[in-house]
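worker-03 picked up job from queue 'complexes'. Input manifest follows; two sequence lines, order preserved.
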Amino acid sequence: MTTGLKTGLAAGAAAATPVLAQGAQRTERWGVHELVFDGPQTGNPFVDVAVAAVFKGAGKTIRVPGFYDGKGVYRIRFSPPDTGRWTWETESSASELAGKRGGFECVAASAGNHGPMRVTQDGYHFAYADGTPFRQIGTTCYAWALQSDAKCAQTIETLKAAPFNKMRMLVTPNVDAVATNPFVRTGKGPRDWDPTRFDPDYFRRYEDRIIRLGQLGIEADVILFHPYDEKRGYNDMKRADDERYVRYCAARWGAYRHVWWSMGNEYDAIKTKSMDDWDHLFEVLVGADPHDRLRSIHQINVYYDHRKPWITHASIQNGAAVLDDIRAAMHRDFALKPVIFDEVVYEGNSDKRWGQLTAEQMVERFWWGLIGGTYVGHSETYDPNRNADYSWLGQGGVLKGTSAPRLAFLKKIMEEGPAPGIDPIQHWWNYHIGGKPHEYFLKYFGAASPSEWKVQLPGRKSDPKHSFRADIIDTWNMTVTPVDGVFTMQQLNEYDVHDPARPSIALPGKPWIAVRMVKI
Amino acid sequence: MTTGLKTGLAAGAAAATPVLAQGAQRTERWGVHELVFDGPQTGNPFVDVAVAAVFKGAGKTIRVPGFYDGKGVYRIRFSPPDTGRWTWETESSASELAGKRGGFECVAASAGNHGPMRVTQDGYHFAYADGTPFRQIGTTCYAWALQSDAKCAQTIETLKAAPFNKMRMLVTPNVDAVATNPFVRTGKGPRDWDPTRFDPDYFRRYEDRIIRLGQLGIEADVILFHPYDEKRGYNDMKRADDERYVRYCAARWGAYRHVWWSMGNEYDAIKTKSMDDWDHLFEVLVGADPHDRLRSIHQINVYYDHRKPWITHASIQNGAAVLDDIRAAMHRDFALKPVIFDEVVYEGNSDKRWGQLTAEQMVERFWWGLIGGTYVGHSETYDPNRNADYSWLGQGGVLKGTSAPRLAFLKKIMEEGPAPGIDPIQHWWNYHIGGKPHEYFLKYFGAASPSEWKVQLPGRKSDPKHSFRADIIDTWNMTVTPVDGVFTMQQLNEYDVHDPARPSIALPGKPWIAVRMVKI
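worker-03 finished. Artifact:
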């Protein structure tokens, strides 16, 4: 066995395969700097060999665990948070992997690289590390990454033309898939596999899909566990195996700046794990992920307590919460963190009630969520046999619904709005208005078809008085119609302002209308 | 100084003043067994002397802290949880109070004594210790206990004729009051008082009010801290003083079976305490209250995390949450505990928007809360000068609003309903129905005035099919009108049942209507 040292330069998530290089190196900020070493192949390296590197630079010291990639190859992936000179030194239980040293220059991020996602200072929104706001329009294709290369390519083509900027995706299969064996098989039965030996090919394939999403600017919401796998039992392992699996995923994928961690999908439907198990796995993940990627967990019935310190944002399944901006906003009050309704039932033709939304109903949920200061996720279930397993939701492929263009339109409205995002405005007083107090107001009428809106906006005597322009937004037909003239606000009562000369706005009497009031 | 031993027999909360007796004693189950001792008067007994008794009986050992009641008198109050022989032995830092021994016979509870309040096994409702369901119809008179005896007597008279079975009440004053000095005064300024020396008269007066509520069968929701006291600063003490105060209240009042603890009113408006302080004070309270009375805390803006282990139920302020049963029910999903909306803005004529509800709007909030499986609190602000300080909310006295009879009617509907209470039924699917699945359904229409209700009830093929009788309930006019005939349920689709012969119920086209469907 040779014990070599290879150090890697990768432009980050944009590189499908890390480019290896010897000697002097440069890696861009928030890219992936990969170290590659040859090491022990005997025994079970996944269990027997620990390897990590301590990186020092920009006044920081960051210890990054590595992983075994099979065939005697060990990798350590680091995403430098700051420019400048970084040095590193390896640690390992294997002497031939320990004490290696090197360094590299971290250069400025290239165009389009905004860095990893963070929760904004106000506590309720997301922005890239460079400050660029992130207006989440998510979708879900549970097992798209585990399909054939051809099917994956089709999904990627669909995503290129779609508005989605976050993808929820399972690591292990829930529906029919080409890739089904994350662990080395030991026999022919579905449960004949060795939880202590990962199959690097499986993880490399998944990683390729992660990287392709990064190339499209789509965040990868990686779901580590789910309950849809009673046959194979990947989600029913023992604690030590779960820990090893979580650490392996974190070491392999944590350096990709667009990775988010979803600890579980419908976690509370996994009967072999208790709340203590979930809390423990989060603690393992926090310890295993020096890149500190976003972390959440998604439920079916029992809300996880998203105030727990390891949770960065609330990931919620609830189809009713986003039919009312105030219900949605209350989830912020509970979590005191950003809220994404990752599952609000789906557009489609499923024979189940959770997959029968019209496109109008799907879009409506995004708008109410927005007014409530939260974010919403899409998916669709269209299938000739009404079996969602074979739909976009299950496998990816092509979109058959009609909500996506409207979600693109919504995203544009969001981008034109305040940064970092829309907040509910005095939602405990039933205004049903989102925006930014005194500056930007977004009123949405949902399925109602009013012919007029009485313009009364929250504002007290001590608040600044501004003038506003107004737009009538048809959220379904994707039109923005300016209202002529200016609204000059004056005090109406102790709590509200209005323009006495223009107390109301005429509306078209159709559903799916919003009004936007922007300070001039 | 004489060091004597007196043991007390009290029939429990029903006794305004504990009856002292020597020698053989009997105390009823869940009553108050009071031990009275003479002890040290020198120095500052509130700080210098610790006293407690260890009670043994029914296989249990319970250590009960005592308190100094002034003039050399020490009291230890114990509420025996089980009948049979109990023995006790005192512990004290003062030798003359230590090592006293005695015993008493705990006899069966008398009629009307249902024991202390507990959360029911299902996790979302309340019942007395004997299993009697508690249908919470709360009210708030913040400083009623601190008013003159005459005014207090007036409040008691009002309560005798009112439906309320829980009273929220501050320990320290927020508005004009007769009793304003819980601590011994040291000068003439509002902040001239000694936090280490309680005024026993003040606490004895408050205790008298607690006992009077008990005589009426009204739970006393004792609010330990509040933010309406910047002048005197009782809520801005140092940690050690807060701890002593909490322990004193717990020792004095914890044995009364109808006491609940509300750690704070609008806790997050008290700027001198952090979240850590609140958590700490709860830990102090848990340690100081061997009777384990219900514990919660009430917010203005920032929801406390009611999943914390010391919280027994969520106490919520939110006027919008109870305008929609699903918003209300989501608070159960957040807390995983019973939810009481203790403040939903008030009926009255206040010039503030938080005190301007019509009686209809007040009653509406109770009904939506009920359908959502939660409980609601009342108060009113009527005052000739529109100043709520001098209203029922501030000082008690008489009720001027018209919601109370409707809340009595509501309470009767609750009592006729399932035990331990109404649960939301599939609220994440927007049925807007509460009750008990397959057996009892309560549909409420609020301010809407439908002329018909299409009767589709949640029920799958595998669920039992029943026949139902129906009532149309006018929640404002307090009438129950039976619908002729029987509804025999059959499967309508995968999720719902209906009676194809009687697919709908005609309604009167008025607001504030509910329909009750009860299994025959």
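worker-03 released lock.
The interface with chain B takes residues 302-303, 305, 307, 318-321, 323-324, 326-327, 330-331, 333-334, 336, 352-353, 427-430, 494-495 of chain A (CB under 8 Å).
Residues 371 and 446 of chain A are 11 Å apart (CA to CA).
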